[in-house]
Write a structure and sequence with these properties.
The complex is a heterodimer of chains A (863) and B (87).
Chain A: H1 17-21, E1 29-30, E2 35-39, E3 45-49, H2 52-56, H3 60-63, H4 74-85, E4 93-100, E5 107-115, E6 118-125, H5 134-145, H6 151-166, E7 170-176, E8 182-189, E9 200-201, H7 208-216, E10 219-222, E11 230-233, H8 255-264, E12 268-276, E13 279-288, H9 296-340, H10 345-351, H11 353-359, E14 364-369, E15 372-377, H12 382-395, E16 401-403, H13 406-409, E17 422-427, E18 435-440, E19 445-450, E20 457-459, E21 466-468, E22 474-479, H14 488-551, H15 555-578, E23 584-585, H16 586-597, E24 605-608, E25 611-614, H17 616-635, E26 645-652, E27 658-665, H18 678-691, E28 694-700, E29 703-710, E30 715-719, E31 744-748, H19 752-764, E32 769-773, H20 776-785, E33 790-794, E34 796-797, E35 800-801, H21 803-812, E36 816-820, H22 825-831, E37 836-839, H23 844-862
Parallel strand pairs in A: 24-26, 31-32, 31-33, 33-36, 36-37
Antiparallel strand pairs in A: 1-11, 2-3, 2-6, 3-11, 4-5, 5-6, 7-8, 7-13, 8-9, 10-12, 12-13, 14-15, 14-18, 16-17, 17-18, 19-22, 20-21, 23-25, 25-30, 26-27, 27-29, 28-29, 34-35
Helix pairs in contact in A: 5-6, 5-9, 6-9, 9-14, 14-15, 15-16, 15-17, 16-17, 17-18, 20-21
Chain B: H1 21-49, H2 53-80
Helix pairs in contact in B: 1-2
Classes of the chains: A alpha+beta (863), B mainly alpha (87).
Chain lengths: 863, 87
């Protein structure tokens, strides 16, 4: 190790801080291996070292006051001028290697840099034989650095490489510690021994200004500690200030520093700065037991090697950080997984202490969250931690805090330092602070110093004079009250952990907030929904009450009707509630109604076809309709006596609407109700009015037939049903096909036989009346005074076409079918309003199919 | 009375010889189609009105000829590949 320079204190007091104030960059001398001149801006020599004559062949006296061009050959001068053009950085140094400066052709390595308003030019006679590129020696060592594994490997390889490159007998890698002391982390010696490896050097060995200089001038060679050097004359400028030689390669050395080296048994020394992230990370300290000079070119190559070492350090640290980052990410994932399983944060963290220890070794863990203390391992008690948390609250910011000697900062901790000597505190929330604190036990460590660190200087033989220590024998110090220091990677891992924990905290908090908000919204929704339903029910009850009252003839009838309808609503409501107010089954509702009103007769009810999930809004309406239908069948219809049956056939039409045909057979003869009661109103109007669906009921003598259609908006889906539950024995199917016509039909056909045939088919399909017309005018007259429900139009009526009638029907929304003789479909589709075409000669089946489609298309168009 | 306001089923068979060939063919096809339709309709009407075996036999004959006419119409349309027209 080569501590930096100090010099005799100007005052009698032995004060180490004097070293820190020593102007070591202005000693006014150069080492003998090089000569120096300082020239003005117009290149007049203002200062020169006394050895200029020995080195350059021009005496100091002859040089002073003369232009630089008079001292060196023009080629050399031109090289210097060219080099100057590249100097842009204030701390930049131009380097020239093997340049002839005199007529005799002798080669020099030259260094040029600015110092104040002067240029400093240093000349070193070229020592090495030209012809071998120094870089060729250095490059393999640089390449080898990349293969180093750990930091120790990297430092060891670098020390060995530097020893080979420099030829120095000993090379140490010296790393600065957080307290500014230095530790030798690698050593390579020619004798193969380990002299200082692992030893500590006190911070005072390298004064502050020496560190600053190491950051500006990255390499310092002391070729011979016994060299008295050569003074620069004149020593100062006109104002008396000595020349600043901070960047001078040949700058002389403080006598104290030389004495220090002599005390170490060193005759030559070279220090190379190791920079990292703009700070002085450490030094390569090269020692030799005899004087040793290596030329400027090789020193420059070594400097470059140090740069590469710095780069590798950064790369190594980056890789290490990546590993740490991945480990921390795994921890975070693990933590989130545990919390997802329902474990509280504290429990999750405590259970992960061992996993965490693989990334950040620790002996104990404390989680202080919302005033709750949880701990595991070798940790402070809750009471002890209460004081620690107060200390942390007032002492640290939002960043990770660490100390390996808590007792020094927090006196109460000395009482339990055997248990907890150091902490790594990770703040994980805002005030009031929550902390995750990792703890380490005390480690009674012995630190080996290179000499007594408490006595870096002694009184010298010449009275009160600052003198470096003479002994560098290993000096062991037993350290108590401390734990193993938290390493930089561990601190970095803690910082990552802090980020991860903050994220976890935020997620937990967010999740809690979201849950709270969701609950509030749900509550609000429920209140609104409840309010809405209560209002609806009240309005409905009011309507039921009024209508039932107006249509009832006796109080008993009124009560029974009202009660039945309320019960129907209640059942529908129950059904919906059991489905969480989600869409509910049509068939379930129907079965429920029959179960309530046709007990014992339910087996005579058959429900055929797919089921549909009815929306809650439509469900209550549907419930009332089914209630009326069911009660009517029991009171007046098929279920009144012992033989009748009810068949409910469901289907889905092309537009997605849900159809259910209600057909009663086998009951007493049916006649249309003499008066239109509220029940009839519900049956006929409720679905069309409230759901925009369709309802059609006919009181045929053989039994009631009704068709209802729920629009797609009222259902959320249909599905094929399993066999009917209420009616194990199949009931008699309805005595007609699926498609039925109702109302009056129009047949426009100029051929009577075809017209009569069409009319017969329409009547078979259910038409109550069919009007036959043979001309457009007659048909339009009839349509003008009647309202057909459907029509069949022949396209060609001799010398006219049925288009005007088709348009009139389309305007009135009457479904119609065009009958045509041969391939005219495409043109008809272009000319006529949207319609269905049946090919002539038609059959009963093809006409029925066409009418079915026309009716459905029109219904879809209305939707 | 039967045909009051309505055309005779064979009325459209009368073809104007001065019309272009395409229109004349269409007219003929139309007439044929009408005859097929009338046959089919007649058969159904007769079947509704009477259970007489002779009538039923006539009905079957009409239906058969209507079906054959319909098939012939389709074949002719395909053969002639006439452009669509509504008249």
């Amino acid at each position: 190790m080569a501590p930096a320079e100090g010099r005799p204190a100007p005052t009698p007091q032995v004060d180490l801080t004097n070293c820190d104030r020593e102007p070591i960059h202005r000693l006014g001398r150069v080492q003998s291996y090089g000569a120096l001149v300082a020239v003005s801006a117009d290149l007049i020599v203002q200062h020169a070292s006394e050895n200029l004559g020995d080195i350059l062949g021009v005496s100091q006296e002859a040089a002073l006051g003369r232009p630089l061009t008079d001292l060196i050959v023009s080629d050399g001068f031109q090289r210097i001028r060219q080099a100057l053009r590249g100097l842009r950085d204030p701390d930049g140094v131009a380097r020239l290697f093997g340049v002839a400066m005199q007529a005799n052709g002798r080669a020099f390595d030259v260094s040029v840099h600015g110092s104040g308003n002067r240029l400093i030019i240093e000349f070193e006679p070229k020592a090495e034989t030209r012809g071998r590129d120094v870089l060729l020696d250095v490059y393999p060592h640089i390449a080898a650095l990349r293969h180093a594994g750990s930091l120790a490997d990297l430092a060891r390889d670098a020390a060995r490489a530097l020893r080979e490159m420099s030829g120095f007998g000993s090379v140490m890698v010296y790393q600065f510690q957080p307290d500014a002391s230095g530790k030798v982390i690698a050593e390579s010696r020619a004798d193969g021994q380990r002299k200082h490896l692992g030893q500590m050097f006190p911070a005072s060995d390298i004064p502050t200004q020496a560190r600053a200089l190491y950051m500006r001038a990255l390499l310092r060679l002391i070729a011979d500690v016994d060299d008295t050097g050569s003074p620069i004359s004149p020593p100062g400028a006109i104002d008396g200030a000595p020349i600043d030689l901070s960047l001078a390669a040949t700058r002389s050395v403080s006598p104290i520093h030389l004495e220090y080296l002599r005390n170490m048994g060193v005759r030559a020394s070279m220090s190379v700065s190791i920079m990292k992230d703009g700070a002085l990370w450490g030094l390569f300290a090269c020692h030799h037991e005899t004087p040793r000079y290596i030329d400027y070119e090789r020193r420059t190559a070594i400097e470059m090697f140090a740069h590469m070492f710095s780069y590798e350090l950064t790369r190594h640290e980056t890789a290490q950080r990546k590993v740490t980052h991945e480990a921390t990410s795994r921890l975070q994932t693990q933590l989130m997984a545990q919390m997802a399983d329902g474990l509280p944060l504290a429990q999750s963290l405590l259970s992960m202490s061992e996993d965490l220890a693989t990334v950040i070794p620790h002996d104990g863990l404390v989680l202080y969250e919302n005033g709750t203390f949880s701990a595991t391992g070798s940790a402070p008690t809750e009471e002890e931690f209460g004081r620690i948390s107060q200390f942390l609250d007032r002492s640290i910011g939002a960043d990770v805090f660490q100390t390996h000697c808590l007792g020094r900062l927090h006196a109460p901790a000395r009482e339990y330092e055997a248990r907890v000597a150091g902490i790594l505190a990770v703040p994980v929330s805002k005030r009031p602070r929550d902390y995750l604190v990792l703890t380490r036990r005390q480690v009674e460590a012995s630190v080996t110093w290179a000499g007594n660190p408490d006595k870096p200087v002694e009184l010298g033989p010449n009275g009160i004079r600052l003198t470096p220590r003479k002994s560098f024998e290993a000096w062991r110090e037993t350290v108590v009250g401390q734990c193993k220091p938290w390493s930089a990677p561990e601190i970095h891992a803690a910082e990552l952990l802090r980020t991860a924990l903050l994220e976890v905290f935020l997620k937990v908090t967010d999740a809690a907030n979201m849950e709270r908000k969701r609950a509030q919204e749900q509550q609000q929704l429920l209140i609104s929904e409840l309010n809405h339903r209560v209002r609806n029910i009240l309005n409905l009850m009011r309507g039921l009450l009024a209508q039932s009252k107006s249509h009832a003839t006796t109080l008993e009838e009124f009560t029974a009707n009202l009660d039945g309808r309320i019960q129907a609503l209640a059942r529908a409501h129950d059904q919906l509630t059991s489905e969480q107010w989600e869409p509910a089954s049509f068939k379930d509702l129907l079965r429920c109604e029959f179960a309530a009103y046709a007990a014992g007769k339910a087996e005579r009810v058959r429900i055929i076809g797919p089921d549909a999930m009815v929306s809650p809004k439509a469900y209550t309406t549907l419930a009332l309709v089914l209630h009326e239908m069911a009660t009517n069948s029991v009171k007046y219809g098929a279920l009144r006596d012992e033989n009748g049956k009810v068949v409910v056939q469901t289907s889905v039409d092309r537009s997605g609407g849900f159809l259910f045909d209600w057909v009663e057979r086998g009951g007493p003869p049916v006649s249309a109700p003499k008066r239109r009661g509220f029940g009839s109103t519900i049956i006929e109007e409720a679905i069309p009015h409230e759901l925009r669906g369709d309802a059609d009921i006919s009181y045929k003598l053989t039994g009631v037939e009704a068709r209802f259609r729920l629009p797609p908006a009222a259902i959320t889906g249909t599905f094929d049903d399993i066999p009917p539950e209420l009616a194990p024995a199949p009931a008699t199917p309805p005595d007609r096909g699926d498609f039925r016509l109702q109302g009056t039909g129009l047949v426009l056909e100029d051929t009577l036989i075809i017209a009569m045939d069409a009319a017969s088919i329409l009547e078979d399909l259910g038409a109550s009346k069919v009007e036959m017309q043979s001309s457009v005018s007659a048909a339009l007259d009839w349509v003008g005074t009647n309202h057909p429900d459907f029509a069949v139009l022949d396209v060609n009526l001799g010398d006219e076409q049925s288009l005007p009638v088709a348009e009139a029907l389309a305007v009135r929304g009457v479904p119609f079918v065009l009958a045509t003789g041969y391939g005219e479909a495409e043109e008809l589709a272009r000319i006529y309003p949207p319609c269905v075409i049946v090919q002539k000669p038609f059959s009963a089946a093809s006409l029925e199919q066409a009418l079915r489609q026309a009716t459905a298309d029109l219904g879809r168009g209305r939707n | 009375m039967l045909y009051q306001g309505h055309r005779h089923p064979l009325e459209t068979v009368a073809v104007d010889n001065n019309e272009p060939p395409d229109d004349r063919i269409r007219g003929a096809l139309h007439a044929l189609s009408n005859m097929a339709s009338v046959s089919a309709s007649s058969a159904r009407l007769l079947a509704r009105k009477s259970d007489d075996p002779l009538v039923l036999q006539i009905t079957e004959g009409l239906e058969a000829s209507a079906e054959r006419a319909k098939k012939a119409l389709l074949d002719l349309e395909e053969l002639l590949a006439l452009p669509d027209r509504s008249d």
